[in-house]
Here is the input.
Amino acid sequence: MVSTNYAPEHTGIGPYSTQIAEHLAATGADTHVLAGMPHYPAWRVAEGYRGRWRIRERRGGVTVHRRRHTVPPRQTALRRALFEASLLAHGAVAPPRIRPDVVLTQMPSLAGGVLGGRLARQSGVPHVVVVQDLMGAAAEQSGIQGGGRAAALAGAVEARVLRGAAVVGVVHESFVDRVTAMGVPRARVHVVPNWTHVEGPSGDRERTRARLGWSEKDTVLLHAGNMGLKQGLEVLVEAARLADQEAAPVRIVLMGDGNQRAHLQRLAEGVASLSFLPPADAQEFPDVLAAADVLAVTQKASVLDMSLPSKLTSYFMTGRPVIASVAAEGGTAQEVLRSGAGSVIAPEDPKALLAEVRALADDPEQASRLRHRPEEARWRRGPAREVRTGR
Here is the structure.
């Protein structure tokens, strides 16, 4: 497997790569992973890995080969290009010394795609690509500085990798048209949805709320996960600013890390209805989600078919209603509506967002109807035998 992101990263793509690799190892396959240094979502190298050039370690029956690379604390197209170039250069110079039977690449990393294709060609074996995010579309839609110029180049490299793959998996139907437009035959493209990589909540909800300082009177809207450009989290800051002007208590919480966290904290200075939490550990995470009244997923209005937020699989396991402040024609909106777990409102509209929170707080029956109970979920746990049903 080639995947820039891997455990101990516990959000984003890392958990999916890790569970696939460990599942393959558990079946008896001699499984190796070419990965980067753990850095996501904080975009800084994790303790214990800093200053290391190359690392070989065993995790969950998998041999992980790590290669050093740049980690840009702030995202621009140029810095992202340097990040990808360093991954590609180090991985090409020092690949794992093994001969695989198949190479499985997790994208969005362009460097990972190129390296996976190269390793597969050198060994004369199939290259299978799973597309978690589309990099060309990401450069075009996310608002990254310099992204317009980078989109064409990223899209060209991405298309070349995907056309050369024996099989292309995409995590949502909304990716299919864009992938086939790159010249990939439709017969090679398969929808392989992600699963939830966390257990359902197990703790005492009232106790968790008390520990977090959330009163019984508070209506808590929680966003958990990466704080990046494409999330457009400024809408939550502005919704909290509006909430400060109203009598009924609404608390908006941003939990997690990312390259936009410091910017959001500066923007939120003096906003009493907004608070920040550090990332929760894997055991605590589901209980914190379940302690909220409503869960939020937000994206810039320009984000349509570049990604599907991995947080949705975790949200759907908690039994809390979801508000999606996203483009109605995008894959995220489709998935939230199809799940029956929440509502979709216009993106980048803080008034509409706050009004939807108020509406759910004032109508407990509607909030209850939107709750997506784990026993009824189409999202199942595990990469193979417990996959999402209902396709």
